[in-house]
Design a protein that fits this description.
The protein has 179 residues and is mainly alpha-helical. It is 48% helix and 6% strand. Among the domains are: 45 residues, no CATH class; 41 residues, Roll (Membrane-bound Lytic Murein Transglycosylase D, Chain A), CATH 3.10.350. A two-stranded antiparallel ribbon has the order 1-2. It has a two-stranded antiparallel sheet with strand order 3-4.
Length: 179
């Protein structure tokens, strides 16, 4: 076999080019656009830097929120830790940091208070409401509410009345205190 000369290869390339142009003109469409190259790898691999930036931001925000919660509501464990770091002696009384000491203000003193003041006692009282009004003929909730200076909604709520028109003569009602 003989090797082709450079002139023949150029001639073949020119013929192929003409054939391709003829085919494109027969189609009547615009020349083909270059195909878009598909990105290899998963979405996570392509956006790893953005994902890491978001994770760092979220972790910093959560750390800041946790510190803010610790400073706004110190409990006894973190308080004794703070006392031991400051070198102050702990006593039988509970120690409470002042707002200036926590906030970094000018006064860095430690304010002590008795344990009873630090832990406030919860007082509760319950009053049993007895029915104090008996429905008579011609009564409506509006008339009763006006008579006792309260609202129809409050009387309904105190007596669990679903329908305000369904009053029975002789029914006992609890009348809420006036507004």
């Amino acid at each position: 076999m003989q090797a082709r000369s450079t002139g023949e290869s150029e001639l073949l390339q020119g013929q192929q080019r003409r054939r391709r142009e003829a085919r494109d003109s027969e189609r009547g469409s615009a020349p083909r656009r270059a195909r878009r190259r598909r990105q290899s790898g998963s979405w996570l691999q392509r956006n790893a830097l953005s994902v890491m930036a978001v994770l760092v931001l979220v972790s910093l925000l959560s750390l800041g929120f946790g510190l803010l919660q610790m400073l706004s509501r110190p409990d006894s464990a973190s308080l004794t830790l703070a006392q031991s770091e400051l070198g102050t002696p702990t006593t039988a009384n509970a120690a409470v940091l002042s707002a200036a000491a926590v906030g970094g203000g000018g006064d860095q003193s430690l304010v002590t208070a008795p344990a009873q003041a630090a832990q406030r006692a919860i007082q509760s009282s319950a009053k049993v409401l007895e029915p104090d009004y008996t429905v008579v003929a011609g009564d409506t909730l509006v008339k009763i509410a006006q008579k006792f200076n309260t609202s129809v909604e409050r009387i309904q709520a105190f007596n669990n009345l679903a329908d305000p028109r369904a009053l029975r003569i002789g029914a006992k009602l609890v009348i809420p205190p006036p507004l």
